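tool=predict chain=A
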Amino acid sequence: MKQAFGFIIFLYSISALAQNIDAKRDYYWRKGRDFIDPIVTTFVDFNLKPTKVDSTLKKRGNSDQVGMISNSNGALILFSNGCYISDKNDSIIKNTNRMNSGTIHDLYCPPNGSGFTHQQSMIVLPFPRDTNSFAFFHSNTTLTRDYIADRLLVTKVTKDNQEHFTMRYIDSILIKDSIEAGHLTACRHGNGRDWWIIQPRENSNKYYKMLFSTDEITISTQNIGKSSTAFENYAGQAVFSPDGKKYVRYNFESDVRIFDFDRCTGLLSNPIHIPIQDFADTVWFAGCAISANSRFLYLISTSQIYQLDLETSNIAASKTTVLVYDGSVSPAGTPYDFAHAQIGADGKIYISNTGGRNAMHIIEAPDSAGLSCRAVQRRFKLAKPVSYGMPYFPNFRLGALKGSSCDTLRTNPDTPHLGDYDLKLYPNPVGDHLTIDITLPNYDNIHTEIELLDVAGRRVYRARLSPFTSIHSVLLSNFANGLYFVCLMVDGSPVLTRKFTILH
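tool=predict ok
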């Protein structure tokens, strides 16, 4: 079936620049929630160098259903907690306080609460070919029980040149069925412009698949793999691999389900089910994320974090424990264990906690095997306590599937122009920690490297960039003071150079 919408289509040339418009859509995160003070929120800001992670007070709070999107420069422009949509100033866009209307809205939204409690139940996507319009896909329920949902909705807002927003429609119904209150995911279509969106049905092996294209949303279904159970709604996470070739779900009862995904047709195939038996089977907290190189799957399992190799022939046998919760608790006695995860623009995986509330965990090098991935407990201490509520972002830096039959838009030219590349260095001069913000025409280029050269032209540092990451950090504490150069290498050839000075 198809859902069409009446909006103006803004036509423009599809080029490498189109992908770069979306490259920083995930640069600012807001997450929650706090049980004591509902207007406390954690933020992760990749615009600050180095990346800033902390918690603060906001005009309006949020719970677990959080959706947001940044502009082409990485600054937050829209945010929703499931109760309304607000702009960058936390001002509610007119009439959006009616979104997700119903019994659960009245129970969890102001003045009774700070937002919906459905983890990973909202995605915000730019409209294909219309960079001024944004679609909020969100699940809700008309029932009194909030652990399942019975509808998937879409709400549209549009901005003008001054970033003033107007709601065009609200809660347009896409699906009316018992769906899981969570596990809502998206992946760029093989043409590099449109989007695939997947929403699992509750208590079944049925998947709703939506193709969000220029002027319509086409919906189909597929039954495949192990069925969900009625008890596991709202728990766990689902993700696509950054390259869009794998679709993975993990929660405490049905455990791990891994599928191949076809970005051209939207078909899931080759299902794999891997049982995971541990403490997470007794609680409602589990999550997952996949490394930027799309090889390593991380299962966030309350008191353990596991790594699985998606490229090996026996994925189940590759399971390695890379972190075990050490039992630490906050001054209030709440645990600093593990809950949900999201990969950042820097390729690192950020992990929330279930109850400790004033710390976040991190996997520093997810592309590395075993303990070399450097999973660290309580890496970030937060000024104010916040738990759960990790936002979900698709891979905005994924381009067209080159050479495939569905790469009809020719989004990525074979010969990018020099203007498609950029390097920004922070700070400069620098002391011990240099951050490099990289702009590429194709973020999935596996032969992209950074080299540091001294004033004599000798190479003193070299690192291959993780696919789909735009931020790279270099520790310079062992480097001598002086003038240096950063060189961006693509397929072994230099394409751009910037200079910086080290002053310890």
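The helical segments are 16-21, 103-108. The CA atoms of residues 27 and 74 lie 5 Å apart.
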